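Target chain:
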Amino acid sequence: MVPARSTGGSGALDIARRLTDICGSRFARFAGPADEVAGRPARWVAVPGGAHAAAEVLRLAARHDLTVVARGAGTKIDWGAVPARVDIMLDTGRLAGIGHQSSDRGTAEVGAGTPLRAVQASLERTGQRLALDAPSPGATVGGVLAADEAGPLRHRHGTACDQLVGLRYLAADGELAEAGGGAAGLAQARLLCGSEGALGVLVSATLRVQPLPASRVWVTRPVWTPLEVHDLVRAVLAARLDPAAIEVDLPAGAGPRPRDPRAESMARHPSMTGRPSTGPAGAGSLVVLLEGGPSDVAERADRLRSMLGSRATVARSAPSWWRSYPFAPGDTALRLEVPISDLHAAVYALRDAAGSPVPVRGSAGLGVVHAALPGTMAPDRVASILVAVRSVLLARRGRCLVLSAPPAVRRAVDLWGELTGVARLRAVKQHLDPGHRLAPGRLPGGL
């Protein structure tokens, strides 16, 4: 094996020429300023035209001891830990297209580089859809799977990985492998979900498709406190209305809360002892999505609106914040995962640690929400907030992850918190990528 240091000078030009031979003159180049992962610059960019070409890129990397980081649309390229090295950025944009569709099995094979919205638009013409609604605009199917990204529909249908029937991927040595076709194969396929490309380069996925619902309505109720959200979610779940999604949006904006005897009664709940009786600034929203046949949806919507009270409204379109994250580029992006019975405690803990309301949005019916801390917040302050929140979540079987953060914050904080299963993950990494060439350091535990 030729060591990586030999790729300086004329060696770098030789790698560029070889990538051009594999991918074509328009699809291989030296990396530019935008070709980086959380501040770690790449050296070359390769855009292979198919699985065979992508395999050749990986074999070239193996011969020269180069690392490879796969990139789809780049919507989540800064999520997770910073790779130790980014030599070749393998862009999956040409590993795209919708292949075989099996109407009897309800599946479709989709290239990893295919934008999710393009897949949905194509399926919609035949009255079908994927039960995937990832919040990242422009995200590719491969990127959604690699991050195991899920949107509101996760409430009923599970994560992106739950939609998998099979997977084709390239191992670190360039060997094309397939996983699926039975419990063992499916378990192997799901190992690559959420692996951020550090266990294999996704080529295509066979996913379940389903008929488009004939009717969809969004029932919205304004909310002011996490405790109020907790009680309402519990009531919605107990009513057995079969919601497709239950989402909450708690902004950090200003605005007084109108007088509400029921809310005032909830404020006297024992868990509110020692807290201010006035709610947080700004009204949020609890939104329940109902899907199904027109008459059935109308009947369930009437029941739900009656249960939620006079402030509840019904609409045929989603609110503007639906299927989007509360954080912006440059923010410290957090994900809180906790049993739904303790979600309000997690949000209160975050607010208490931050000293003010923090924007929170996500799946209240599952206890999985996202939050944002300002990118201008001092790194040591972010670190102290994480310690405080994680101490509360630890006893409640929850966790708080840092998805993305400014460089100074990354250096000061623990992205993962309490880790479990690292030994198993290490064994899988050693089996699939013994040379640690695929996004090294991207996974928990520095793997």
About this structure: The mean pLDDT is 90. Residues 19 and 420 are 39 Å apart (CA to CA). The first strand starts at residue 28 and ends at 30. DSSP finds 13 helices and 21 strands in the chain.
